[in-house]
Design goal:
Length: about 750
């Protein structure tokens, strides 16, 4: 039976029959044995023979109900008729609390002496003690039934709240429903939930039973009372005593408060009920019920709210955006969305630790909330990123709010361990219009705008406009972010390669650069120039670099005979982000060990720009990997103003001369001089040089005369699929020996799916 079906019922009697045999043996030849309650109502009786009809002996005893309390445990004897005597005693429990009476009718002619009386007295005492607990249980059950009747609406509160509140979808709406249900079903004058940061309060006043001055009460609860309960972590019951008067600051009321805990037993909120000072006191049942509702509030808060700031999370925010978009479309009320990003938060985290970063986030969250209306919706989307839905605000109004938030944050004086930090935010603003395609599109627009604000120098508000070139470019990058995630997940990247050979040599090339392409459906195979900018901006390069390494090794192992596997050098590009990944070295070592490809067959290409930006990490990484047998090439060398100055810190094998210089050596004496200088420095340091973008024999001959060792470009070969390159290498070799088998026979020749292997971070 569920709580909704529960009715207040009482049986009226208990099963005394289970004691019938015991009672008969104790009381011998009694004509009748009767158990009654304090009012004289018969609860149970038994007669010696069916012909003896029980008459209401109680009515004949002083013509009134016996005072069982006065009778106590003594045995009272009364003559009922010439042939019948009544013996009476009270039924008491272990605490001597009287709960009823025991009446035994005997034929007194059987007892000319007191022998029978003594035996009956002993038996009645034993029976009375036996039945005492049973009668009291009956009374307790009746009291419980009455209590359940009184609490029927409260049970409806619990179960209706369970049905109507969706813990994982509705965020603030879920909280509002819970607070409203408590107020309605318990007929409280006021109910409220104060969130952990004390600035978020959801409150409801009873429509027909309001409490006086609810605004003042709410302020008191949100400040001192919340602090007290968060510290003590205990339920507060105030029914008019002196204990909590100081905390209430003169507000006259009866109050019941319960802390709301998270999974770590930290207080994330406080739940309150309040009534007028003249109302009935709060009971233990009220307390237990509020604790049940506090547990429900805890589930809602943990699912939809950020523990640090008390703001809702992205899921709850998107729910409110859906609701807001409906209002914009069908009620034509303007709404706007802000994306607020704390500038240089990583500096605080890196220099002072994440505790300092958390403290700053809380300060910024408070500043944001102080500029919003009660109907506005604010959320922490992650890290130092916040989202705001400004309800019924035009773009101009929204821009004013955003500017006030920016200025308010800028005024924050944030110091941590004697170190002072400058605080600012970049804000992106996007209108929510009837033509807005979806919630994701308006979020995307706000993210594009905040990215542009950061590009323009941070600490500013940027409004999204479809005709803004910068915003269009930034939106394209964000669009590519989603496509790249899908490409990694669905293995839609593919591998190409371009040969590198000795300058002035027409024989086969044993050196090649592995190139990445993206299969993009109707758009065909895309060059990395299209998507790598987005991958770098959104820190996807480490995942992409791992995909390239893993799939290059698998493709080599699957398609080259063992004797050819380590006769070539394969150059693989690494990004600056990957150089900073502390786990990347172990990843490479694990993959090469698993594949069986010799480290010397792999040459990692690092651009000069990336190496210089991560000079210390790059130098250590290159040095450690070279000790294990891997080779390195410094790509785009000569593009920087101080290229030569960094060579001592970067122990590479090859210098790859920037193609913009190499391709001009025939027509531009300055370019020729630069290439000659690079070649000379390379020789002095024991390095070999590679020139890119070589397209004519004349350029190749000139480069060779300048001392360049290798050339790469259309004069050597166009980029081709890595599989095709491996097929060419295999066909050139002399087949037939036992060793001319694939290194991994289980894999065999490369199929269409051989390079489409999952990425593993």
């Amino acid at each position: 039976m569920s709580a909704l079906e529960l009715k207040a019922t009482s049986t009226g009697e208990l099963d005394f029959g289970k004691y019938a045999g015991t009672i008969k043996s104790m009381l011998g030849d009694a004509l009748a044995i009767v158990v009654c309650d304090l009012r004289g109502k018969r609860l149970w009786s038994i007669s010696r023979d069916a012909r003896h009809v029980y008459v209401d002996a109680l009515a004949q005893i002083n013509e009134s109900v016996p005072d069982w309390t006065r009778t106590g445990v003594a045995i009272r004897r009364c003559t009922i008729s010439d042939s019948t005597t009544a013996y009476m005693t009270s039924i008491c429990d272990e605490d001597r609390i009287v709960s009823g009476g025991l009446l035994v009718l005997l034929n007194h002619r059987q007892d000319p002496s007191n022998t029978l009386y003594k035996r009956i007295s002993d038996g009645m005492h034993n029976v009375a003690r036996l039945l005492g607990s049973e009668v009291r249980l009956l009374q307790e059950l009746d009291a419980m039934t009455a209590e359940l009747s009184r609490r029927y609406e409260e049970l409806n509160l619990i179960y209706n709240t369970e049905d109507s509140v969706k813990y994982f979808d509705e965020g603030q709406d879920a909280i509002r429903k819970l607070v409203r249900n408590i107020c309605q079903y318990l007929s409280a004058g006021f109910s409220a939930l104060v969130m952990a940061d004390r600035a978020t309060v959801h409150s409801v006043c009873h429509p027909t039973n309001p409490i006086a001055d609810p605004e003042r009460l709410q302020g008191v609860l949100a400040q001192r009372f919340h602090e007290h309960m968060a510290f003590r972590k205990e339920v507060v019951v105030h029914n008019g005593g002196r204990r909590y008067r100081e905390l209430l600051e003169g507000v006259e009321c009866k109050l019941l408060g319960c802390p709301v805990f998270d999974e770590n037993n930290d207080v994330v909120g406080t739940l309150f009920l309040a009534n007028d000072a003249a109302a009935a006191p709060f009971t233990s049942s009220d307390r237990k019920l509020l604790q049940v509702m506090a547990h429900k509030a805890s589930r809602i808060i943990q699912a939809n709210y950020d523990a640090l700031t008390g703001m809702m999370t992205r899921n709850g925010f998107e729910y409110h955006l859906e609701t807001g978009l409906y209002v914009v479309r069908y009620k034509q009320l303007p709404h706007s969305v802000l994306n607020i990003n704390v500038d240089r938060l990583h500096v605080v985290n890196d220099t002072s630790g994440h505790h300092a970063g958390d403290a700053l986030i809380k300060r910024v969250a408070s500043a944001i909330r102080s500029q919003l209306n009660p109907d506005d919706v604010v959320a922490r989307l992650g890290g130092g990123e916040f989202g705001v839905l400004l309800v019924n605000r035009s773009q101009d109004d929204a821009a004013e709010v955003a500017e006030r938030i920016r200025a308010d944050v800028q005024r924050i004086e944030f110091t941590w361990e004697k170190r002072r930090f400058q605080v600012s935010v970049s804000i992106g603003l996007a209108d929510m219009e009837p033509a807005t395609e979806s919630v994701l599109s308006v979020l995307n627009a706000a993210e594009v705008a905040v990215a542009a604000a950061k590009d323009l120098g941070r600490d500013r508000v940027q409004v999204y406009q479809t005709d803004n070139t910068m915003l269009v470019r930034r939106q394209a990058q964000i669009h590519w972010l989603g496509k790249l995630h899908s490409a990694l997940r669905e293995d839609r990247f593919t591998l190409y390669c371009q040969p590198i050979r000795r300058a002035g040599y027409d024989g086969p090339a044993h050196h090649a650069e592995v190139l990445l392409r993206l299969e993009d459906g109707a758009n065909g195979v895309l060059s990395p120039d299209v998507f790598l900018g987005s991958a770098e901006r959104y820190n996807l390069m480490p995942a992409i670099d791992r995909w390239v390494i893993r799939n290059t090794l698998k493709t080599l192992v699957a398609n080259l005979p063992r004797r050819l596997l380590n006769e070539n050098v394969w150059a693989i590009n690494l990004s600056g982000q990957t150089l900073s990944d502390p786990n990347f070295m172990q990843f490479v070592l694990d993959e090469t060990r698993r594949s069986g490809v010799a480290p010397a067959s792999l040459c990692f290409e690092v651009t000069e720009t990336a190496a210089v930006a991560n000079l210390k990490e790059a130098g250590q990484f290159i040095d450690e990997m070279r000790k294990k047998g891997f080779q390195f090439s410094l790509d785009d060398f000569g593009s920087g103003l101080s290229s030569f100055a960094y060579l001592k810190a970067l122990p590479v094998n090859y210098l790859k001369i920037d193609g913009a210089i190499a391709r001009e050596v025939v027509s531009d004496p300055v370019s020729a001089s630069m290439v000659g200088a690079i070649s000379q420095v390379g020789r002095d340091m024991g390095l070999e040089t590679i020139a890119e973008f070589v397209e004519t024999k004349e350029v190749e001959a000139k480069l060779s005369s300048l001392g360049v060792h290798y050339v790469q470009g259309y004069i050597v070969g166009m980029p081709v699929a890595l599989r095709d390159r491996l097929v060419t290498l295999t066909s050139r070799s002399v087949m037939g020996s036992q060793d001319d088998t694939c290194t991994s026979p289980a894999i065999g020749a490369l199929s269409d799916g051989a390079v489409r292997l999952g990425v593993q971070s």
